[in-house]
């Protein structure tokens, strides 16, 4: 990671992760496609579950981001002991995270749903779905952490394999469970949840095995293991802003659902479908981030500023190219995309203008995403958090609420574009500051060393 030309290195590390993220997006979409064939209420229930479910993912992925950044930096500094300790404490934190959501799954799911809807059918379908996803979330937490360990040590192909295993198992089991081939009690949203958690456990098992047997850059040894306060602190210095940033997304989704529910439950279903579809656009970029972060972290630790900057520029170019493709698909094929979810005429009437309006923010979002991950890789995740809070809470929600007062649901979707304009502006302001304080001084240090 310190010598190979940056562009082919980024491609080499990113493509496996981009493929695995696309598969991840595929099985999320397939999940909803099958659920939509049960009923629109079932699709709405899964959409309402997203906020709390996303919070669970936020904790798992955010902790993994902290481990990824610290582990790759430790390897760049040739500090093997710290790298091993980081990996072991990362797996310990994954277990702790699971225990938290086990308790939440048993206590808060019912009041969470009835706070969003008075429709008993929607609420009960959602309760069954989300309870299973939380109570059996150990596979998800372990899969995410082990994949981050593989990615941090440049073994993105192995990470891709573990994600593919989980995704394929889920896709195979979805129709079997959802359509009642294993009995009515395991059908519908219950079946969708079971297929999801079984796939996650399969992915977790494969990724853990690959770290033990195929990843010589870290040596996992849990004999006499004791949690390290220092390692955990270092992980969460980077990871907590990432967790908070994604939890902000959960709060935004929860409150946006309240705004849309004032129009119709169909608008909530459209919003849920949008999130599933946009994952096809965003997931490849998140996959590229998994290839980019260890390159930046390694070269930051090795004090090579030229490679840090070139990695950022290459990643931003590819991100914008992906976003352009997504924009064109949403702009010209919204009816085809919504048709995948058995959209009714009412859903098409709301969904087609929604997709065409929201996709304008794609053209800016690629730059924001890359810079946000850059801040985390350089140990300044707080910048990412500030941008996320401003975008989703300070700008997007107030704009959506004000636009909803027009009585036209189509106006609400413009809030995404307004928020993205603010986000990309803040991202460049913060990057200029980071460049001046962290990256440019590395040139001076290199010159002084010579």
Describe it for me?
The protein contains 17 helices and no strands. The chain is an all-alpha fold and 450 residues long. The protein has helices at residues 6-38, 40-76, 80-107, 109-114, 120-135, 138-152, 156-178, 188-214, 229-261, 265-301, 305-332, 334-339, 345-358, 362-377, 381-404, 409-412, 414-449.
In short:
By secondary structure, the protein is mainly α. The chain is built from 17 helices and no strands.
* CA-atom Rg in angstroms: 21 Å
Average pLDDT over all residues: 86
Helix content class: over 70%
Q: Kindly, what is the distance between the CA atoms of the first and last residues, rounded to a whole number of angstroms?
A: 22 Å
Low-confidence stretches: none
Give a short account of the largest sheet.
Answer: none
Strand/helix succession: HHHHHHHHHHHHHHHHH
Summed up, the helix count is 17
Assign an overall shape.
globular
Describe how the helices and strands are arranged.
Elements (H helix, E strand, L loop, with lengths): L5 H33 L1 H37 L3 H28 L1 H6 L5 H16 L2 H15 L3 H23 L9 H27 L14 H33 L3 H37 L3 H28 L1 H6 L5 H14 L3 H16 L3 H24 L4 H4 L1 H36 L1
Task: Pick out its properties.
450 residues; mainly alpha
